[in-house]
Amino acid sequence: MSDASASTQVTQRPQSDDVVIRFVDVWKAFGPKKIFEGLDLTVKKGETLTIIGGSGTGKSVLLKCLIGLLYPDSGQVLLHDENVAQKNDKELREVRKRVSMVFQGAALFDSLTVGENIAYPLREHLKLTDDELTARVAKNLTMVNLPGIEHMRPSDLSGGMRKRVGLARAIAIEPEIILYDEPSTGLDPISTRVIDELILSMKDKLGCTQIVVTHDMDSAFRISDRMAMLAHRKIVAEGTVAEMKRSTQPDVRAFLDARAS
Fold first, then answer.
1. Mean pLDDT, the chain, integer
2. For 64, how many CA atoms within 13 A lie in the half-sphere containing its CB?
3. Whose CB among 64, 93, 101, 108 lies 3.0–4.6 Å from 70's, allowing a Cys bridge?
4. How much is the average pLDDT of 119-130?
5. d(CA 235, CA 37)
6. By the 8 A CB rule, do 154 and 162 touch?
7. Contacts of 233 (CB under 8 A, 6+ apart)
8. Taking the CB of residue 231, how many other CB atoms lie within 10 A of it?
9. CA-to-CA distance for 229 and 25, rounded, in angstroms?
10. Torsion of CA 112, 115, 119, 121, to 10 degrees
11. In this structure, how many other beta carbons lie within 10 angstroms of the beta carbon of residue 177?
12. Closest CA to 229 of 258, 189, 195, 198
């Protein structure tokens, strides 16, 4: 390795004072199926990190471990050096005030209106008056470019609109970290670009840290500050978009070449 290459790698390695999330030696299995074996990953404050990898490699599992929907069998999932895996239900409620997740299918309640869906986490986590709730819902719908649809039902929305309402609900509590599970799955190219632009705007408007799981490499290249490749139950490569595009790591190369063909 040349001195220049070594220098580049050192400058991109997260420093201890700007790391907000760390997965340390994480192991996870569902019965005989092993998902992670000693997985390590760091995420820096304010960055958008995209996790790529084949189907069934555990990308969504990684996100769910961060918000306590799943627990690792061993290892640590650290948020500001606090182990999420050791927190009780009350403590996890505090975590979920700081970390929001946009689920793959938006996970909206069909029995509630759009406004009620967005207000749901506000009622769960904050003590706001009805007027404050109404104002916060309207503000967040405007942020995702869907003003005035509070009284619509999720069943009346297109797939792209449902994704945006899911994002509006996720940002309603003004989280420090937003997790996106396949945000563009099932969307047409125009709707996908809208979602990409919203992810970029969340970083600019809210200053939040973001982790995105996606199979869409065009999206990944557009939105990422860094990317990480999950394969063989571990993170096998990570780097900037430019570094990943020119990577010779076999799993990265095979994945990117397959997507380009």
1. 86
2. 12
3. 64
4. 83
5. 10
6. yes
7. 34, 35, 36, 37, 38, 39, 57, 58
8. 19
9. 16
10. 60
11. 20
12. 258
- Number of Cβ atoms within 10 Å of the Cβ of 164: 26
- The type of residue at 184 is S
- List, for residues 25-46, the tens digit of each pLDDT value: 999 999 999 999 999 999 999 9
Instruction: Convert the chain into a string of H (helix), E (strand) and C (coil).
Output: CCHHHHHHHHHHCCCHHHEEEEEEEEEEEECCEEEEEEEEEEEECCCEEEEECCCCCCHHHHHHHHCCCCCCCEEEEEECCEEHHHCCHHHHHHHHHHEEEECCCCCCCCCCCHHHHHHHHHHHHCCCCHHHHHHHHHHHHHHCCCCCCCCCCHHHCCHHHHHHHHHHHHHCCCCCEEEEECCCCCCCHHHHHHHHHHHHHHHHHHCCEEEEECCCHHHHHHHCCEEEEEECCEEEEEECHHHHHCCCCHHHHHHHHHHHC
**With 50 as the cut, is the pLDDT of residue 10 above it?**
no
Q: How confident is the model at residue 106 (pLDDT cuts 50, 70, 90)?
A: low
Residue with structure tokens 């994704």?
Answer: 163
Find the length of the chain.
261
- The one-letter amino acid code at 257 reads D
In angstroms, what CA-CA distances link 24 with 8, 80, 160, 235, 245?
Answer: 24, 13, 35, 11, 26
Whether the CB-CB separation of 208 and 45 falls below 8 Å is answered with no
Q: Answer positive or negative: Cα dihedral of 77, 82, 83, 86.
A: negative
Structure token digits, residue 143: 């942020």
